[in-house]
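The methods section describes the discrete structure representation at length, but only in general terms. What matters is that the chain and its backbone geometry are given together, residue for residue. For illustration, here is how one protein appears when written out as sequence plus structure tokens:
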Amino acid sequence: YYFFFFKQKTAYEMLRSLVGSEMCIRDRLEECLKNPQCMLPYDLYTIKKHADVPQKGPQGKAHKSDNTSKGDKTSKMTEKLDGDSFKDSSSNYNSSKITHSRNQTRVDGSGAGLASEKTSLFSKSKGRPPEKAPEQNEANQSINKIQPPPKPAPPALSDEEMKLISNENYHTQLKFVERILNQNTYQKQYINYRNYPEAVIQAEKLFNINTDIRRRVTRLPRTAVKQNEGESDEEENNDQKNNTNPRISHLFNFSCEAVDNRNVSSADWNKVNEDLLAVGYGEYDLVSDQEGALLFWTLKNPHYPERIIKTPSRITSCKFSERSPNLISVGMYDGVIAIYDIRQSSNKPIADSTEIEKKHLDTIWEVNWVGRGGNGGKGENIVSIASDGRIIEWSMKKGLECLDLMTLKRQANPNQKEDGLEAVNFRQTAGFSFDFLKNETTMYLTCTEDGTIHRCSRSYTEQYLDTYYGHAGPVYKVRCNPFWQDIFMSCSADWTCKIWNYKEEKALTTLRSLDLTDEVMDAEWSPMNSCVFASVGKDGRLELWDLQRNILDPIVSEKSEGAAAKTMVRFCQKYPVVITGDSSGVVQVYRTYGFSDDNLDEKDQINKLQRTLYPNGYKSIEKANQDLENDA
């Protein structure tokens, strides 16, 4: 055993003295592995070629390593090396070639040719070793300098292929194919989105087989057929009951790689093409310096938008025009407002406030198109509110001109603890949102960061008409009811939503979930029910409230663990659909069931809301004052 171990160890030392140090062997292995077409040497002839390459010594002269072993002993050691040592070192490569060479030598008989090569490799010659031809040395040097093969060049396109790719009809046809595939994939979701119950029933009737034919095909008795019919009727009744029960179901998402991990700041549906949804993306962080993005989504492709417009600054608000639905106004984080015409192929705005002196100096939080004149019959202007404490009206008659509507001055809020309340009227406060009353073009409501809500008018630019106190934190959104103009809603960072009547000083009711301990980022009234509104929280929840059914808790609360913060909520104006946006760049689309009340007209909707908020009967403030005067 000792002799066997001694032979193996001596052979390894001899091999290392020939090839070089252990680091040299590892370096050669790594260099060979870089070339996928190179194989490790599995026979001694190839090793000999690597060993005979001249190496430079300490004096810069080429020398070759000498062997000190005897020839008769080395022949036995090499057999052991060929059988064991190299088999272990080259285990990552194909070992079948080694066995093939062995079998070949055995078939020849003595294997003298291979043995002689091994003996000549390890035996030391008495005289000077014969000099090799320069061609062989050059070949060995070329083997030593192995380089990875060059990457294959992409195949050149033919003229016909170039013409096909550059053809506009080719891209149009690809779009059609993509839309057809998406419609086939999301067919059920699209039917639910568009609320086609009658079409679904008719399709089921066409695809169902007649009772007699089904009985003949399946050979079922009449009792079994009647039983199956009863089961189908029960399923239809259950589906009808489920449609009346208030609930929501997730349909699909609008998302793509271009806006991954981007914050969804705002969204708006086009007034003519109600399938066209514009979504603005922009972070609220002070440190972020990313550019903004305005994406136009449709049902034709939920995985990639129809168009992408990039802006130099982050987008915080966007709004389509009602009279000119091809125009969309955009408010940005740097205080610039821009107007785009989506009919044009260019992504440059047709007007912006970059070079206007009286533009906003801070972040614009909301923009909206407001009619001019009594009923808005004289066109539209743009109104914007920003953190610099100003509400500005923009006109497009002669370019883009601006006029200050209101300067928001800070007032002491009794619900907040503040130090140094002196001269607070001379400090401006940031404005977050505004909304004009229904059928009004002069009177509007605005909310601020100090927790106050103000009723303002275009006719008075220096003072408020009314101020409403109730929130203990910044008020992020104020929205007027789409049916009854006296009622409006607000959501705040104090975790609550409040319902107000602008003719009364105090809030009518305060709404808050018991497990909600975070900011309410956005809220929106339903356009199909005067008592329904939706709100989203920073903890990633979506809540739907129905004041007629429950005024204390939400009817539906949708929240998943680890969900991103929701920043936006919008109701579709035509279909029973609600969308939400979050801080990860995803727009979720939900179908609502049991919340719409289309059978009631506007007057019935107002009466329903009055009965809900005033169960003892509602009298307007003007009538109450007249009654007091008559009694006096």
